[in-house]
Amino acid sequence: MARLPLFAALQAAVGPTEQGLVGPDTPARPRGTVIWAHCVDERQLPAVQTLARRLIEDGEIVTIIPTLASPPSDDAQISPNTRNSTRAFLGHWKPQIVLWLGGDILSSPLLEIKRSQVPVIFVEADSEAIDQSKTPRLPGKLRAALGVFSQILTVDEATAQRLFKLGADPQIIRPLGMLEDGVTPPPYNEAERADLVKSLETRPLWLAADVPISELILVSQAHSHAERRAHRTLMMLVPRIAAEGKEMAATLRDAGFTVACRSASELPKDATQIYVADTADGLGLWCRLSPITYLGGSFSDGKIPDPFIPAMVGSAVLIGNKVTQCHDHLDRLVNANAAHMVTKPADMGGAVETLLATDYTAQLAHAAWDVTSRGADATNELVTLIYSYLDQAEY
Q: Which domains occur in the chain, in start order?
């Protein structure tokens, strides 16, 4: 605490435009436990919502108030950014705990939280959060800022070691990983899955999921390549727009493929090369059937299904290099060697062949399952930590 006056003086010189003030339109504080979750990105909101559900399911009367540093969304308020607005925010909501999910760790709000004696937990701490601190680095300042936190939960061991070297108390640092963010595989009919498994027997198969009509030639050519090297391979094709399924089926038949169409109540037979699943079943059934899932759109408009959907049910993720959404989930899979990325459309067929013919698919699927399951473990640990602070507050 000896360095905090220096910390305060440095922050006072910054003078940002004040935001996040409590006003007449601010809702009243709810009863029960209130937790303030300071976020810097809307991508963090699903994890906060999942955490709130977990606490409520455990019978806790709890409200999590998420805030964003940028203009608020429908699911979050705007974060206070000065000592004055933070003091007013704390006075109104009276949170028992603050969760700091990223953001400048040298900011005035953190100093005000410390002075309020509300426990503040740094969640998903990583090197980027340290590097984005805006105030010039002066001796002792970063150490003082790290001393604000009651607990520091890092995304990995490397960040934990770096924070220790920067002066954080090793007793409060714990590598925890990323939180669960509420992605669940779509529902499916287990009896139908079992029947399809029986009818398909040991046929090699792969899934092209959420495919726009502009990628039909791409996936059909990839299938032709794979089929030449893996006899009896079946491609299951889920159109992005179900109503385009009949048109896709007709185009594929014109190209010489033997096609069955789900909307016509057809099932894949031994001679079927491509099965067009053009009904409103979603991906839940097909991801569970196929050991490989290509994420449609990743070679055209970049709009892909969430890669965690196949990853969570054991289907290896195959993806192109044009992606405009789901970057966080995709990066986590790629960084863990849990997804196979193809950089050129011409290489798609070879990628499908490789995944069908080797144990590489199982390695990808296992690594992907590890990535997706870690989030649930991290959230469970955070819930336990929150309970420990709430129990202390009761005494």
A: 32-182+374-393 (3.40.50.2000), 190-357 (3.40.50.2000)
